[in-house]
Amino acid sequence: MLDLNFSVQDLEYFLLIFVRITCFLMAAPFYSTANVPYRFKVGLGFFSSLLIYQYVAVHFSLEYHTVIGYSILVLKEAIAGVFIGLSTNLPLAILTFSGKLMDMEAGLSMMSIFDPTTRITEGFTGMFYHYMVLLILIVSGMHRFVISAFIDTYRVIRVGMVTFDTNAMFTTAVRFLTEYVVIGIRICLPVFAAILVVNVVLGINAKVAPQMNMFAVGVQIKLFAGLAMLLIISTLMPEVSSFIYTEIKKMMATAIGVLS
Q1: Is residue 37 part of a domain?
Q2: Residue 89 in contact with residue 30, Cβ under 8 Å?
Q3: What's the number of domains the chain is made of?
Q4: DSSP secondary structure code for residue 7 in this structure
């Protein structure tokens, strides 16, 4: 049963919990999209904060002396929540990167679609991959894992005890960028291979039959080959989702380690 009797110190402690988890929900995958109402995010953060305050967080006296000192604690908790949320959300950008590469190879780079959830214009393939992987992750319960894993951060990073290791942040950013490129290229490698074969065939035909305009014919052939490969590799979506799932868990664990 929840204890709803608050002292001023308890309220200050609760507000720090509320700030961290609410800022996390504003930046985390699934919950940060524009079509998720802000009232839902704030409500989920509030009721989650009640449970965390009662059953998860270790209670202790906060060390500050002025209003400015408490404001610094609030700011640190907000930065921690946003940092963990962004770190968890970044692996989904790999799909947009690989989608742009496939669009350029298949001749779809001129076609763009407005994404109402992010309010930016993206390529067709990147948006297709993004929503397909999100759907698979939601079906597999990733949205629940994100919340439960973040709640566990209150056992590792005590409220008001957030620290920032700049060297670890730099190392994490470099490692993520490396994996960003590697995983993105691995996802779009089948399309690369198919378009490479098409280019080789067109080059041979240009030498065998120079009277044919291979530039005019090649556009349609590349488009057909690219769409055919997209249809084939759509069956590999579970493996792609596994890559992203592993990267999300790895980035979240790394971000928590940096702040603790």
Answers
A1: yes
A2: no
A3: 1
A4: -
